[in-house]
Design a protein that fits this description.
Blueprint lengths: L1 H22 L7 E7 L4 H9 L12 E6 L10 H10 L20 H7 L3 E9 L3 H7 L8 H9 L5 E5 L2 H4 L8 H7 L2 E5 L16 E5 L15 H15 L5 E7 L1 H7 L3 H25 L2 E6 L3 E2 L3 E2 L10 E2 L5 E2 L3 E6 L8 E4 L1 H11 L11
Parallel strand pairs: 1-7, 1-8, 2-14, 3-4, 3-7, 4-6, 5-6
Antiparallel strand pairs: 2-13, 8-13, 9-12, 10-11
């Protein structure tokens, strides 16, 4: 009998080992949709959930992790250093846009993906030259240099650009360049809010590459009437899918003003931005579920406002407790769905998100083009 028990234990052990080994054989995605809710920590997520009948589409993600988001020079990061960690895989100083701590440009995942045949795009509810989108398409020592960042964006290789910041492209103060003209010379169809509302845009006529500017500088808040983020995200995902021709795509969509609501300690502003962004998340997950080849990652660069749900809150009324009007150093959740999502479980540096995305798309880091 004891020999039978020993054999059974050995069989179970071998079977378990085999299962563990097979679990390591992970299907690689063709596409990545990276969703960044700027300033969105657990407080913001919880507040959005309790304000929406205790449900957000975030709950649909099966894999959850945490990232350590400190920057090279500060325990409390800013959006520029935080986004540079995601886009370039390096810890840099607060204010850095796609450069390392010595201000040396580091090629971004968007640039590598574009060079290696992937379709690429950026969508944001802020200006497209703001810290987060800027860190995926530009290289600059200082996030405030928005006209310089705009010039870099022209050459970053993105096939789709949707966000504010029109004036940084067509009415510049640092030179006499017209980046609208330069974009068109590179084959982009260019339109903006002044010509037509985004909902009136005939995407079928926008061609192989296009850009749409949603505001002269920064777009309105959702509360004040901004209405393009959800349809733009839906259009961007559809466009990326239809034009990638099986080669895959990388798309970053930022819910930018969650952060601004935190800076203002404005709870209604926060909830409106959270619930709008949750509809963006829904559309990304709906596409990924149907497609089967898309990895969706949702995270934030940092938390803003130190938001807690205060004592005395009820299901009908949340009492927000803010501890800051700036960012905080708390770790940030990472949610993942689709092929390759398993690697996003656990606790890791924010730069690991870049490493995991590069590995998932099997992209090769082009070190030779860092000093562009």
């Amino acid at each position: 009998m004891k020999y039978f028990i020993a054999l059974l234990i050995l069989t179970i052990s071998c079977t378990s080992t085999s299962n563990l080994q097979s679990d390591k054989i992970v299907k690689k995605p063709k596409n990545i949709i990276l969703l960044i809710g700027d300033g969105m920590g657990l407080g913001q997520i919880s507040a959005g959930l309790y304000s929406n009948n205790k449900f957000l589409n975030i709950e649909r993600f099966p894999v959850v992790g945490l990232h350590k988001n400190y920057s090279y020079d500060n325990l409390v990061t800013d959006s520029a250093a935080g986004a540079t960690a995601f886009s370039c895989g390096v810890k840099s100083y607060n204010g850095a846009i796609g450069v390392d701590h010595d201000t040396i440009p580091v090629k971004t995942i968007l640039e590598d993906a574009s060079d290696q045949g992937f379709r690429t795009g950026l969508v944001a509810s802020c200006s497209i030259v703001h810290a987060t989108p800027g860190s995926f398409g530009a290289h600059n020592r200082k996030r405030a240099n928005k006209e310089e960042i705009a010039a870099d964006m022209v050459d970053c290789g993105a096939d789709l650009i949707i966000g504010g910041g029109k004036s940084y492209f067509d009415r510049r103060t640092i030179d006499d360049r017209n980046l609208y003209t330069e974009l068109r010379a590179l084959g982009y169809q260019v339109s903006d809010y002044f010509e037509q509302d985004f909902q009136d845009l005939d995407v079928s006529k926008m061609g192989d590459k296009w850009a749409y500017f949603t505001a002269d500088k920064e777009p309105l808040s959702k509360e004040a009437g901004r209405d393009y983020l959800i349809p733009a995200s839906e259009v961007a995902i559809d466009y990326m899918s239809k034009t990638s021709k099986g080669n895959g795509f990388f798309l970053m969509i930022e819910g930018s003003q969650i952060d601004w609501a935190g800076h203002a300690n404005n709870f209604p502003y926060l909830i409106s931005e959270m619930l709008e962004y949750d509809q963006v998340i829904k559309r990304a997950l709906d596409f990924a579920e149907k497609d089967g080849n898309t990895l969706v990652i949702l995270t934030a660069d940092h938390e803003t406002g130190g938001l807690a749900i205060g004592n005395g809150s009820t299901h009908d009324e949340i009492i927000p407790a803010w501890t800051s009007d700036y960012h905080t150093g708390t770790m940030i959740p990472v949610f993942a769905y689709g092929p390759g999502s398993e690697s996003f479980a656990g606790i890791y540096e924010n730069t690991a998100i870049y490493d995991k995305m590069m590995a998932a798309l099997q992209l090769k880091k082009d070190f030779g083009k860092e000093n562009k």
